[in-house]
Amino acid sequence: MQAANVSPEEIARFDKLAARWWDADGESRPLHDLNPVRLGYVAARMELRGARVADVGCGGGLLSEALARQGAQVTGIDLGEKVIEIARLHLHESELKVDYRMQSSAELAAAEPGSFDAVCCMELIEHVPDPAALVADLAAMVKPGGQVFMSTLNRTPAAFGAAILGAEYIMRMLPRGTHHYAQFLKPSELGRLLRHAGLQLEDVSGLGYNPLSRKAWISRITSINYLLSARKPA
Ligand code: SAH
Fold first, then answer.
1. Which residues have CB under 6 Å of ligand 1?
2. pLDDT at residue 116, rounded to an integer
């Protein structure tokens, strides 16, 4: 089924990167570098062992595997056929178990409403045509009392400079056209979408990243990349 809330060009763009997704020095390099910090953010806020976690827009499965390694029972969904294939293949190497599905957030929310202890949605919302609908899907799939974790890019000149000019044009780290400035969301805007979906925002933290040293860290500065956690009232 073709989902409404998807840009086919976006899916094609990521599918092209699929074969090199697990190459820490390839185009997914920033995701590799950010991944331990994202995992740490989630792990600091919940017990992952035994928890049922959805990873929405999982790509090749960097975060899905990291969560599974901590003992979570992970369902990873993405609409990219190639990225899901790569994610599944990589399980042979990691010997972890993740339930990967080529499915939209709306389909998972309809199939398993209120089923996940936590829902992660990292670096996806800036790529969908209707961010409010995505957030509503995340809210629908999480259990009452469960948490939603997201990361994305802020809509600031600093983010434009770092994520588009810096990463795509100057360092050529990401393919040009990976990000569209107008689709970036400010934390206040994303906060409003979360509230409208019935979620309570609990934390917004900056995600610092130095692409030269390849170091990433949690920071107070949210002007470029940020992480947030929200909770569905019990
Ligand atoms: N969440 C992963 C991958 C981020 S890249 C991580 O942070 O490591 C963005 C991913 O979103 C790609 O794999 C792309 O295929 C997927 N994507 C883009 N639009 C989508 C949509 N509308 N629905 C589901 N996945 C989508």
1. 5-6, 10-11, 14, 31, 57-59, 62-63, 78-80, 83, 104, 122-124, 127-128
2. 98
